[in-house]
Amino acid sequence: MRRGAVEFQRRTAPLLKPTLSRLADTQSPQTLFITCGDARIVPNIITTSGPGDLFTVRNIGNLVPDHQTAAEDASVGAAVEFAVGVLKVREVVVCGHSSCGAMKALLDGAPHDAPALRSWLRHAEASRARAAARPPVRIEGRPLPSEVDQLALHNVLEQLDRLRAYPTVARAESRGELDLVGMYFDVGDAQVHLYDARTGLFRRLGR
Q: 17, 23, 79, 162: which has the fewest C-beta neighbours closer than 10 Å?
């Protein structure tokens, strides 16, 4: 980390200074990007974005607590309300990914000596119930063979539904001021897929 910071100061900071100077007193991101804390997911790389573009929320499993109980874990709800209600972002993206450790822990059970993790994953129980009750979600017309990855797809859709229960989000979406986007990143293939509500499929970008 220290070596990287030194390299940033030496090489990158002079290039970014004009942009960051312009952004120093204000921010106007277009996107609230909710994704997993997984170290393999780098939002600015997979969206080719830069400073000031994404208002990013990262947590275990890219989860959005239910609005009715959001006060118990207020961090995500506060970020949603601030990004949509104050910053007026134009879209909210929920990005899940392959080989997600949170989805695996949801299926297999979190370690007994990780009470905070076990408590947090209760926000994903609705995703597990959704995956058990509904047909497989498909990418390009085919279901994913991995139960973990299939759960990750259902989890993205469940979080989008939860977002729509937030009054700030519901009002902005009803006025046509906000789009909700489901994204899935296949780590091994380095491919981004977006959910198409018309077909019920995740589709690979660039095709």
A: 17
* DSSP-assigned letter for residue 29: -
- Furthest C-alpha separation in the chain: 54
Distance CA 75, CA 68 (A): 14
Average pLDDT of the chain is 94
Predicted pLDDT of residue 51: 94
CA pair distance 182, 64, nearest whole angstrom: 13
What does DSSP say about strands 31-36 and 54-59: parallel, antiparallel, or unpaired? Answer: parallel
Please say whether the beta carbons of 201 and 139 come within 8 A: yes
* Contact in structure between 109 and 196 (CB atoms under 8 Å): no
Q: What is the mean pLDDT of residues 48-58?
A: 96
Name all domains of the chain by residue range, CATH numbers in brackets.
30-204 (3.40.1050.10)
Q: Which two tokens stand for residue 105?
A: 């822990």
